[in-house]
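REQUEST FORM: STRUCTURE PREDICTION
Request ID: SP-0412
Submitted by: Lab K.M.
Chain count: 1
Length (residues): 329
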Amino acid sequence: MHTDIQALNQKIAEKNKFVADIKREMAKVIVGQEYMIERLLIGLLSNGHILLEGVPGLAKTLTVKTLSQTIKTKFQRIQFTPDLLPADLVGTLIFNQKESTFTTKKGPIFSNLVLADEINRSPAKVQAALLEAMQERQVTIGEQTFKLDDPFLVLATQNPIEQEGTYPLPEAQVDRFMLKLSVGYPEKNEELEIIRRQTAKVIAQPEAVIEPADILAARETVKEIYMDEKIENYILDIVFATRQPEKYGLADLKDLINYGASPRASIFLAQASKARAFLMGRGYVTPEDVRTIGMDVMRHRVILSYEAEAEELSTEDVIRKVLNRVEVP
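STATUS: Completed
RESULT:
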C-alpha cells in the first residue's frame, strides 16, 4: 500500500498543477476569500453543486464569474426574479410558421458553469426546474430529453437577510447541494486592497488556464485517492451522531435536533474529503480533510427543533459540538 500511495502522490503532483494556475489567475481579481475559492474548487473536482450564502457585496458572484474565466468553458449567469419562468431557464419549443414545425430553443441551463444568482427570488416551479437539471443532469423540453454537457456545475447564491419577496428553498431541495458556504466579510487589510484595485486605472482580468477535459481527468484521479476504513467510519460516526446523538455522548443534543443529516451527507463528505486531499497534493484522506469540510457539507442537512431556536442555538453550534465530540481516528 505504501508504494501505491507514493505513486499516487506523484500522479497527483502532476495532475493538480492547474490548481495553482487557477488560484494565481483568480488572485488577480479576488482579494482573500481563500475559503470560498477552495470550496469552489472542491465542488468542481467532486462534481458537486454549491450554495453560497452571504450578505450582498461579498464578491460571491464575482468569484464564481472569475473561476469560470480561468476555465475555457461555457458560463451563464441567470438572475432569478419573481417573474422568471421554467422555460426561461431550460428553454422551450418555438413554432416555425414557414415549416409548420416546432423547433427547440435551448435555455441558459445548457452551459458548463451556471450561476443561479439569488436563487430564493424565484418561485418553486423555477427552482424545481433547476434542481431537476442538477440531479438528473438532463433537461426535458416537450417530448425530447437533452443530456447536459460535462462538466455541469450549478453555483447558486442567496442573501440570508431579506425575507420580503423570497421563496426559501425547501429542505429536500437544499439537500441536493453538496456544500453550503457561509461567506463572511473581508479583513481590514484585504478591504484596503479591494478599494485600491477597484479604483485603479486598469482592472486586471484573469486568463483561461485550463480545459474542461483537464477537470474531467482530475476528477478521475480524485476517485483513486485512498480512504482508510478508519476514515470511512469516522465520516459515518459524524453523520450518525446527528441522528442518534445519545450514542455518542451527546445526549444534550437529542431534543435539539429534529432531523439528522441524510445519507447524502456521508457520500458528499467522502467525495469532498478526497477532493481536498487532491488540492493539498496528497494521495490519501486525513481526518483533518473531513473536519475542514464537515461544516460545509452538514450545515444545510441538520434540522433543529423549536427548543434549539428557543435556546438561540444555530445549526453551526450543534455541528461544531458533534465535530468536537466524535472521536478522531
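NOTES: The CA atoms of residues 42 and 275 lie 5 Å apart.
Reviewed by: T.R.
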